[in-house]
Amino acid sequence: MDALLALVRRWWRADFDYAWLPAFLDRRGLSRPMRAVVGAWCIIFGICAVLVQFSENGPPSTVAQVVIGVLAASAFYAGARWPTAPWPPEHRSLWFVCWTDIGMAVAIYFGTADRLAALPGCGLFVVIGMYVAVMHSPRTLTIHLAFALSVCATLTVSIAVGAHTDIPILIGRALILMGLIVLIPISLHAGVAFLKEDARESLRDPLTDLLNRRGLEFEAQRLLGVPTTETIATVVMIVDLDRFKGLNDNHGHAGGDAALRAVATRLARAVPAHGLIGRLGGDEFAALFLCRTNEFEARTDAIHNAVHCPGDAVPTTASSGAWILVREDPPVECALDDVLAPADSAMYEAKRAGGNRLVRRSSPRAGA
Fold first, then answer.
1. Do both 134 and 12 map to the same domain?
2. Tens of pLDDT along 156-168?
């Protein structure tokens, strides 16, 4: 029981990043297929809303017919929009969830005069719940489930007070529906949350907790693709510790690991807040960030100087190379190695010059 409670607490308190999954799907070419699936379900909802208009137990009044017709039209619009538009930002996705939840409740309550026939429609809350489970936080999922259960429960009560109702069968149907509405999305959400956590850990270097090469590859396109309307500088740095093999030989691997962790902590503090810092392997680090053109030297100096600290148990220095690209537009998508290569070349120039120095290289301004 304690293990289950601990698992629930871990799930509830887990960090949530809405943008992570759309970026993950986009990187793997799955964004369009997933958006097509969401659009297909919207169209299915729209078709159901149209079909109920032709049922002898359809909407009980003209107003109800108009409302269901509007819901059908909006569902068809959403179905056409989802596959063709980019993945929505979080606030629009939340509005979409509100629309589907409220629209489903309206359709269930007013789509047919036969409440018993409407009860199975509550099962479609499972589909909405699956979307919420994959895309949104535990708190959002909890609100959705509470709303869906309240719709199902009130509908069940309204059926129960009617004449000639088989109460045991009705309760059984309602329990099955409520179980599906709750358990499927919660199980899916927990699974996705833990998979996200494992995926994030796979992008981290276990020794320093910085991004590893795979993590840099994953995050670099997001950073380098940031749109802007002003001139920006894209800075790529390689920081390679000097004579690290000798440090390991003299102080052992424990001393080397301690030096790497200390350097990594200071580098992470020196990189701008929205920049990236990672360990490429061994004693080599990479930093990628955007800054204003008049901050070039100050930013790169701060990162290079962060390596050495006289107070360290094993002080060390570094040879650093910085590649600076100034352009009016965000950089185009390219492989991480292509981005790192110019900075790597500058770093080796610093090595050949004796180490403990920073060499900067820049590309011509785009369009110049």
1. yes
2. 999 988 767 788 9
